[in-house]
Amino acid sequence: MNAPFSLAKSGQRDAFVAFVCDENSAETLRGVAGDHGWPVEKVMKGGLRNAVQTLSVSASPHILFVDLSESGDPLNDINGLAEVCEPGTIVIAMGQVNDVRLYRDLLSSGIHDYLLKPLNPDMVRESIAQAHALLHAPKAAEASAERPHCAVAIIGTRGGAGASTIATSLAWLSGEQEKRSTALLDLDVHFGTGALGLDLEPGRGLTDAIENPSRIDGLFIERAMVRAGERLCVLSAEAPINAPIQTDGTAFYQLQEEMRAAFETTIVDLPRGMLVAYPHLVEEVQTAVIVTELTLAAARDTIRLLSWFRSNAPHVTVILVGNKLQPVANQEISRKDFEGSIERKLDFAIAWDGKLAAQAAKLGKPLAEAGKGNRALAPLIDLSRHLCQLHDADEDDDGKGAAKGKGAKGGTSLIGKLAGLRARLPARAKK
């Protein structure tokens, strides 16, 4: 378990130590320990409390088995264990409670695995084998040094434009298609869907970070993020809606900094309200993807966002994505009129497929995964590839035309643009 720790300890680290509450579990673990050539006396009596007391004054092992059977509050007690474990310790818990939510919560807290008692020797061996593989795997930070870091903010012009859906799919594509270690940071603390869209419990990592920004470091990130795949981790939240978040934004900025060190790509689902409240969040962002529908309100806010980036973040490459495009007969505004009003072309356009969207929601999968092979998602896949190319080279390799700081021109007022757009609307749309 990777967690902050400050107590002085001495001695070399053992390969394996276990703290168990019953003799049957002890016998099973002694047998497995003997198979690996580990001292069987490292299987000790006593559960989680004994583990905390012992490890507070001695070096942590590489692999730690701990029995939760006598713990009245396993999640809280695990946090106590985290305070005395040294970085790099892999913790495997065991217990008698067969509950999916407990299992997920334990994994979210940093536990590697949770085994039910009575212990099955084969399952113990499999869990240890996975722990060994993790111990010897290259660290994300080492992999990230091979390619430039890709930091992307996804911003919707209006609620319901589909920015969160696109953010989740881009994060998934970055890991699966581009083979990059990827972090998805969902900054909608109360209503974010980053974890929900991947069928995950969000955990408390993001709210803990906001409440205690001083704790944020590489070890905190490794422990707080929820793994969604081999190369994708998520940091999201479902904070109580009766508890306003009190922060100056420092925690969000620090999270981005730590993710930059640990991952090759960071996808930030950035609510437009957060952009207003914490403009410094885009200081380290290289690309902003503005997601919009073709409506009058969206045209107004697209103009405003493009102008904001031109004035406040000229270093950011702005990519404009038209999402949920309807058949011409159902459009509030035609693509030609929309582009004319904002004085800019859409860089990518994604058609609306209600059936696919419903299927993805039911499966708890990102749109890009649920719709593999669907031609309607080709622009989304192209967008993902284009984002990576932007950060692997000094200039745009795709020729899509996204430009740094590109925004709406200043020759016509916002009111004038919208008035002209209204004048071009079909009569049926004005009623």
Q: Keyphrases for this structure?
A:
single chain; 431 residues; alpha/beta; nine-stranded mixed sheet; five-stranded parallel sheet; 18 helices; 41% helix; 16% strand; elongated
Account of the 3D structure:
- This protein is of the alpha/beta class.
- Helix content is 41%, strand content 16%.
- The chain is built from 18 helices and 14 strands.
- The protein has helices at residues 23-35, 48-55, 74-82, 100-108, 121-135, 140-144, 163-176, 205-211, 218-224, 250-262, 272-277, 296-312, 335-342, 354-363, 367-370, 378-392, 414-424, 427-430; strands at residues 16-20, 43-45, 63-67, 90-95, 113-116, 150-156, 182-186, 226-227, 232-235, 265-269, 287-292, 317-325, 348-351, 403-404.
- Strands 6, 7, 8, 9, 10, 11, 12, 13 and 14 form a nine-stranded mixed sheet that branches. Strands 2-1-3-4-5 form a five-stranded parallel sheet, with helices on both faces.
- α2 (48-55) packs parallel to α3, α7 (163-176) crosses α16 (378-392) and α12 packs antiparallel against α17 (414-424).
- It is elongated.
- The chain starts with 15 loop residues before the first strand and ends with a helix.
